[in-house]
TrEMBL record:
GO molecular function: hydrolase activity
Family designation: Belongs to the Nudix hydrolase family.
Pfam families, alphabetized: NUDIX
Annotated segments matching region Disordered: 1-25
Superkingdom of origin organism: Bacteria
Protein name, per record: Nudix hydrolase domain-containing protein
PROSITE patterns: NUDIX, NUDIX_BOX
């Protein structure tokens, strides 16, 4: 699983999947390609929607988050933009990381990953 450590709020210092805002006139697929490149240095080919959640943000804003699968097609992994770090992690490694709230449950609920062994914590 490709994750980035958030370099800014919300979730500063926590690990999450790469992502960001969909700009006006931009499709989800276009935003996915742009955000992954900006945050990780990797080019990707978008895949299917895996799931969607709403999460509270600062000042009462609610973020609508849609997560997609993607396949790496090029580039070199390096943290960029608002990411403080980036890396690849196994399902079992996820349970030991400080993840943004709800990420581990969402990924397992959407069957993107299996429940990491020994994990009962939410992440």
């Amino acid at each position: 699983m490709l994750l980035v450590r958030r370099g800014r709020p919300p979730g500063q210092g926590l690990w999450s999947v790469p992502g960001g805002r969909v700009e006006p006139g931009e499709s989800d697929a276009e935003a996915l390609v742009r955000e992954v490149l900006e945050e990780t240095g990797l080019t990707v080919t978008p895949g299917r929607l895996t799931g969607a959640v709403d999460r509270p943000g600062p000042g009462g804003v609610v973020y609508e988050i849609r997560d997609y699968l993607a396949e790496v097609s090029g580039g070199t992994l390096a943290a960029g933009d608002d990411a403080a770090d980036a890396g690849w992690f196994t399902d079992d490694e996820l349970a030991g990381l400080p993840l943004v709230p709800g990420l581990l449950d969402a990924l397992t609920g959407w069957e993107v990953i299996g429940r990491p062994s020994g994990s009962s914590a939410t992440g």
